[in-house]
Write a structure and sequence with these properties.
By secondary structure, this protein is an alpha/beta fold. The protein has a domain of 202 residues: Vaccinia Virus protein VP39 (Rossmann fold, 3-Layer(aba) Sandwich), CATH 3.40.50.150. It is built from 9 helices and 14 strands. A 9-stranded mixed beta sheet has the order 1-2-5-4-3-6-7-14-13, sandwiched between helices. The protein has a 3-stranded antiparallel beta sheet with strand order 8-9-12. α2 packs antiparallel against α8.
């Protein structure tokens, strides 16, 4: 059932320059993450959702990570797309599409697609309308010919596009192997939500990190300069802001390891001493060496990811990899 629109901000009708619209498709209290954060921290196996890595500081730290020599995913995916963009567009007609950028954040990855796709609408989707506002407003001035609609929603729980998204076909863009941040049942659930927003002509472009040797994976997530460690510890500062906790990031050590049985990189924060974390209504002791799980990044083979897509009602049209077969970009359509 279509969720009620709670807040809409649209540019004035009379203006010399186009302005993007911003639409929130969830009530403000539904976007309040504090209760879930406290539940995760207070559980026997403490965890924090990886989305909280990407506040303003975290996002800037991640931008630095993407240019580190051992962090291959961002540049490898960009090379695959740049090399094969014409073929990706030819695999299924996406000309004039509504380009729906899932987890758009700073909206940096979609603009290189504009010349090839020529979207009638650009629809960046993220959990926070305010985070999108500056990036989309700047992008709109650079591309006044494209109608832009920022959508604020937690699509990890529900994905319903507003009625303002009218251009067809719909092209969903989910880069960065973010699908790997979901556990397998959650990944299938997410893809099913995307499938429900696709008509027969819609397409999904999705980036996937592939299984490779342990050393390459662990070096990508634990660099010698300590940038990834700072990125991981910064999540605690963000949790303090959102949930009112009193974490001290300096008391936690970054841990990155590859779980071969589950085909995933895991990032943890490990307490360097016995300590107690408090918040308004409670507290949680941590023993020295106890960990908080902050991120999983599942790795796939081409065949295993095709199976995930199939379970979600989606079919692979084509897929491209880099020469080392470290990363893949899939073009996907609804099953018939």
């Amino acid at each position: 059932m279509l969720r009620r629109i709670y807040a809409v901000s649209v540019s004035p009708a009379r203006t010399d320059k186009p302005s993007p619209a911003f639409i929130q498709t969830a009530a403000p209290d539904e976007l309040d993450p504090a209760p879930g954060l406290i539940n995760g921290i207070d559980s026997p196996h403490a965890s924090i959702p990886p989305w909280f890595l990407y506040d303003q500081i975290g996002s800037r730290l991640f931008d630095v990570i993407t240019v580190l020599p051992n962090y291959y995913p961002t540049r490898t995916e960009a090379e695959i797309v740049a090399t094969n963009l014409r073929a990706m567009c030819g695999a299924r007609d996406v000309t004039g599409a509504a380009l729906i950028d899932l987890g758009a954040a700073s909206c940096a990855k979609a603009p290189p697609l504009f010349d090839a796709v020529r979207p009638a609408q650009y629809v960046p989707v993220d959990i926070s309308v305010e985070f999108l506002r500056d990036a989309v407003t700047k992008l709109q001035t650079e591309h006044p010919e494209i109608e832009m609609i920022g959508v604020g929603t937690d699509f990890s729980k529900e994905l319903v596009l507003p009625a303002e998204v009218t251009a067809t076909p719909r092209l969903f863009f989910y880069p960065g192997s973010s699908i790997g941040n979901y556990d397998p049942p959650e990944a299938r659930g997410f893809l099913k939500r995307v499938r429900r927003q696709m008509d027969d002509d819609a397409t999904l472009w999705i980036g996937v990190d592939l299984v490779k040797d342990t050393e390459t994976l662990e070096r990508a997530y634990d660099d010698d300069l300590g940038v990834t460690a700072a990125f991981n510890r910064n999540i605690l500062r963000n949790v303090n802001r959102v949930a009112g906790t009193d974490f001290r990031p300096a008391e936690w050590r970054h841990v990155a390891l590859y779980n071969e049985d589950r085909h995933r990189i895991e990032m943890h924060l490990e307490a360097t001493r016995d300590l107690v974390v408090t918040w308004a209504a409670g507290q949680r002791p941590f023993a020295a060496g106890e960990r908080i799980h902050t991120e999983s990044s599942y790795k796939f083979t081409l065949e295993s990811f095709e199976a995930v897509l199939h379970d979600a009602g989606l079919d692979t049209i084509d897929a491209w990899t880099d020469p080392q077969r470290w990363f893949a970009m899939f073009v996907v359509a609804p099953s018939t």
